[in-house]
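The instructor's notes for this session suggest beginning with a concrete chain rather than abstract definitions. Hand out the sequence below and ask the class to guess, before any prediction is shown, which regions might be ordered.
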Amino acid sequence: MTTMRLKRLARRAGLITAGMLLAQTALSSGALADERADLMAKHRGGTITLAAVSAAGTVDPMINYTAQFWQIYQLTYDGLVKFKQAGGTDGFEIVPSIAEEIPQATNDGKTYVFKIRKGIKFSNGKDVTPADVVASFQRIFKVKGPTTGSFYNGLVGADACIADAATCTLDGGVVADEAAGTVTINLTAPDAEIFSKLAVPHASILPADAPLADAGTTPIPGTGAYYIDSYNPNEQMVIKRNPHFKEWSVDAQPDGYADEIVYKFGLTEEATINAIINGQIDWMFDAPPSDRLAEIGSKYASQIKIDPLAAFWYAPMNTNLPPFDNVKVRQAVNYALDRDALVGLFGGEALAQPTCQILPPDFPGHVDDCSYTAEPGPEWVGPDMEKAKALIEESGTKGQKVTVIAEDNAVSRGIGTYLQSLLSELGYDASMKAISPNIQFTYIQNTNNKVQMSISQWYMDYPAASNFLNVLLSCASFVPGSDSSINISGYCNKDLDAKMKEAMTLALTDPDAANALWADVDKGFMEQAPLAPLFTPKSVNFTSARLDNYVFNKQNRWLISQSWVK
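After discussion, reveal the predicted structure:
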């Protein structure tokens, strides 16, 4: 083991012994039915108050693609199936929701018949029918959701819907039988991940008369235990009990404890921490600033919960604009990054770890392998600035102007300033611009804004390698001129696209072999470096002293509805 690696391990050990005094306390959600009924009788009522630096854009569940609002959609919307609302890795299990059960495939794995539960009502009082299900799948394409081309393009009729969204019928792809109370889904080819794709909020079942355009700030009725009563992204979101809700599945949509949930927007991280300490706010979405961690970790240890995430922070580089249309420049950035410094900006190694790969650790398809480091091997150990500067010289791009687009919050601004400084050191005329988190994610996706480099994060939709590699970097995920072009780098590699399709087909019969192929795809993308991985984060949740029964779900994070306030 090299000296640099030994130092790195020693530094980690020091952090662990010092501990930053951050404690994790999470109560189990595995109470038996009678125990749960007793808890509901004791703790039902009150208002939980949440806070974030900003809102997360549109409230439309078929368009919004943020972890911030996906967390809210767990208690307000349902799909045919859903990820289990339970603690830990139990949250990866898919359970029936609007559908009575998870059907077996027929037609060589291409057809599924879902029996729709009777008695489920939307928050506006209307019954859920098979017609609503069909209209909901058509709407995914009509509103041009960000995953139409990657999640739902395997539906029969999807090609026609992608070509002309306005006339989308998904003819033969999603078929209702009102008399039988069923909906049949037909695929063009077997899909090992179809139930995961049906379990995410983009496949929420909405009323057939939901608007066929982005709902923006106007909430759409849902089927959850709660509904979004009002939403002003400059002030707050108010979430209330669904008066028409009757619990049909504790696994998919459990009844909640609080009568109301208020989500406030616009407070700084510092102000929110003080409000949590004073009992005025119960939880903050944003990570606490690093300069407050020692204080809250020592004084309020029982109120800090740290949970590892299948996610990464990364810097997309626009492969269609100078200087990042040159692969040597993209590789140089990856070599030059001091990922330890970036981890420090996020709050230290107790809260994140460096990475130079796309797939996160302990995730399907991940194999420890880092080339962009001073000592190539299984992990990142330090930057190689000499190699980076040599590549920049070879590229002939020194002196060009580069702007980094960050979110206007403490962590992202800090990372943006660091990247600006690094690019300047590499010889560029660099600047950094921070814009509201409410619009940054859509802004950096749209090619019309000519973003050269930005800071973004990706949190898994579901536990599959394709959910990182195929979603973020497939040719189909690049849609010029769209606010929903999740391939922010604008990178299209047809050879790697073909490998990804092969891996997804292989997953139907040999998941292990498929994951080995995904590891090769990860390495192939990193050789071309359309993005620079920075670090993998952990979820840091600071809650008020009055909030109890904190349950962390590995799929969708803290289960808000399952906590209560004293």
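Then share the key points. Residues 19 and 379 are 22 Å apart (CA to CA). The chain has 16 helices and 22 strands.
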